[in-house]
Structure formats: C-alpha cells, structure tokens
Amino acid sequence: MRMKMRNTILVLIALVVVLVxxxxxxxxxxxxxxxxWVKDAAIYEVNIRQYTPEGTFNAFSEHLPRLxxxxxxxxxIMPIQPIGDTNRKGSLGSYYSIKDYYAINSxxxxxxxxxxLVNEAHKLGMYVIIDWVANHSAFDCSLAKExxxxxKHAPDGSFISPYDWTDVIAFDYSNPQLRKYMTEAMKxxxxxxxxxxxxxxxxxxxPVDFWENTRKALDSIKPVFMLAEADTSALMFNAFxxxxxxxxxxxxxxxxxxxxxxxxxxSFIEDYPNDYPQGSFKMNFxxxxxxxxxxxxEQELFGDAALTMxxxxxxxxxxxxxxxxxxxxxxxxxxxxxxxxxxxxQYSNHDFYxxxxxxxxxxxxxxxxxxxxxxxxxxxxxxxHAMVFLRQHKNNKVLIVLxxxxxxxxxSIPDKKAEGKYNEIFLNVMVNISPSEPLELEPWGFxxxxxx
Length: 452
Prior knowledge:
Blueprint: H1 2-25, E1 43-46, H2 48-51, H3 57-61, H4 64-69, E2 74-77, H5 111-123, E3 127-132, E4 136-138, H6 142-146, E5 168-170, H7 176-193, E6 197-200, H8 208-219, E7 225-228, E8 242-244, H9 246-256, H10 262-271, E9 281-284, H11 289-295, H12 298-302, H13 306-315, E10 319-323, H14 350-362, E11 376-377, E12 386-393, E13 396-403, E14 409-411, E15 420-424, E16 429-433, E17 439-441, E18 446-451
Parallel strand pairs: 1-2, 1-10, 2-3, 3-6, 6-7, 8-9, 9-10
Antiparallel strand pairs: 4-5, 11-12, 12-13, 13-18, 14-17, 15-16, 15-18
C-alpha cells in the first residue's frame, strides 16, 4: 500500500513538473516584426510647409545630406495630400484635413517632385514614411458626396466632426467598402512612390482589425514600418511596430516642474517596456508638431534641461524622434494653419544629435524592439537628483549618468556592474568608473559612456 501510494505521489509530481515546464516553454506573445533597418534608427518629423521659405519637396531635399550626416535614418513626412477648403482653418488649413487621398498638395510640388525626394533619401541610406489620416476627411472630400454612408452621422443626418476639429468629418469603419478603399489607397502610395511605411494619425480611434488586415496587405508588397499615434498595446501585436511614448514626455515635464524626482522617473522607465508585446517599442520625444504648436517649444517645457531630456529619449528603450528645427534648436511655436518658416542658421544642436544617433547605431545595447530593450538601474550616491542606468547586450555596454536637478552634483557610483573603462562620447575621453572616482556634473548635466 505504501509502495502504491509512493508511486502515485511520484506520478503526480512528474505530472506537475511536466505542466510547469510546458507552461514555461510557451513563447511570449510577440509583435509582428519590423523591417531589419528599423532597430537602430532615429526618426525625424518633416514639416514641409514650414521647413523652407519655398515650402516645397525640392527645397527640403537640399537638406537631406545634412540630416543623413546628423544620423537621421527615417524621415516621417507630415500629410502631403491636398487640404480641404470648406471650414478651412487659417489661410492654408490643417495638413490633417484631407481632400483627396490619391493626390499631392500642389503647394508642396508634384508627384515627380515627391518621388525624387524619396529616391534621394534612399540613395543616402534613409527611409521615408508618410502621415496617413484614416479617421476623417475634409468636408469637401469627394467621398462625402459619392459615399456619404462611409461617414458617421448625427441623429439629424449631419456629418460628425470629432472633438473640436470643425474642419473635418469622421469616417464610419463599420462600412466594409470604406475599409477596402482606405487599404487600397495606402497600397497605391506604397507601390507608386516607393515609400517605406506610414505614421497613422489618431490610430486608436479606428478598429484594430482594420489596421491588422491593412498591415498584412502592405507587407505583401514589401515590409513596412508602421507608427501609430497611439499608446495602446492592442495595436502593437499585428498592426504597428511602434507607438507614442506620451507618458515619458509627461514624466519628464513633471520632473522639470519638481513634481517627481529622478528615482521616480527611473522607476517609470524601468517599467514601461512591459506595456507592449516583445518586438514592438515606443517612440520617445521632447517635441513634435502637436507639442510645438499647441503646448510649447522644448525651451518652454524644459528650459536649460532640454538637451538632458533629449539624452533620455535617445538612450532609454524606444526610438528617438526629433521634430523639424530641433537641431537649431526650435525657438518658436510654429503656426499650424498658416505659413511660418523655420529659421535655420547655426544648427547648434547638430553635433549633439549626431553623437547620440551614431552611438545608437554602434551599440546593440541601445537597439529597440529587441528582447534586451530595457534599462539596468545603477546604484549611485544620490538617487533623488541623479539618474544612472546601463544599457547592455551581451558584452556591449552603455552607461548613462544624468543630473536631474538645478544644482551641481558630485556623484559616486559604488555599483560593481558599472565599473570599468569607458569612452565619454561628448568629450571623446577615456574615463574609469569606480567607487573611488566620483563624477562631477553641472546642473542638468549629462555624461554618456561607451564601454571600451
């Protein structure tokens, strides 16, 4: 009897072990992979209208060699289709009020001009994605007359404008013909202009299954990079590769305002990669077209901490973005509905961004969308005012040390995992990191080290 009981217990233990091992062997649900060229890329948002006095594709193209030299790999170009006239805001209207999904805005140039821009970018090893507005159209878009059933309607039968966007009307994605039209239009742009993907406006307002089906259709033509203006994990499995890291921006603003400290920001950064499925990632930024025009410039938001926050966006998990003019830096809020040319003169931040973007390309520890796309917190003598962390992949290490306060810091790093000889990238000098050799940091200072 005892032998039987013993055998029964052994069988039960074996079953438990098998169940545990099988559950552990299940792979983590992963996102649809991005093209291989995305993993080390920095992205640059292009505002064609405001970029040059001419506001054209051809005039912007002259800046391509400079942007390539700065380390930019992906160009995200704001909407390039014709803008609606009905209920137009300002003299030129919103880029996001699309009148014709198969045409080019003539103020920017011609189809041939745009194709030429894409070709020149490709020759320089860069990639191009365009902004796609699938949630709504202009009032005078031909679809509103030809297919009013493709739109949402109020009880009185009138079109519905989302939020306070009184120059546009919302589509109704319960209509299968609208879905087919929008997917075919995106396929057409991919084939006819050789672009490399899309940034999709307010993607979270559109059903996930539409995006998933459209992604399959686009990838059947060529692998594309898909960026969602959203921060929703459901979109990141089979539709998009990346979404907006709005919460990181909010946390950095809160830190600059004194509402949180360095340790609280570090804890947030340590945790947020868990929001998305493995293989997808977030886009990090201190500015973009919405922030600049409606909230404030990077100087307004961060003051003398602006470059420190930019270092964070380029070294924490995710893809760094800079908006048109930040390399100058951007000193004004650009008008959204009228002409307001960016004043380029000194490109004062060019070398700063080049150092960060080239660092990312050289070091697999900083690549996004990988299973090691996370930070390793490092112990320091002042976790309230300083944020110190490692990025590591195998033997590749990058150490980031930031003074997140308005006073000078003398900082000791007694953490063995950070010890060793490094090259400090902004000074190009060798530095030994050890508990007995403290680091000096200016107010809002940053020091970035590449392991030798």
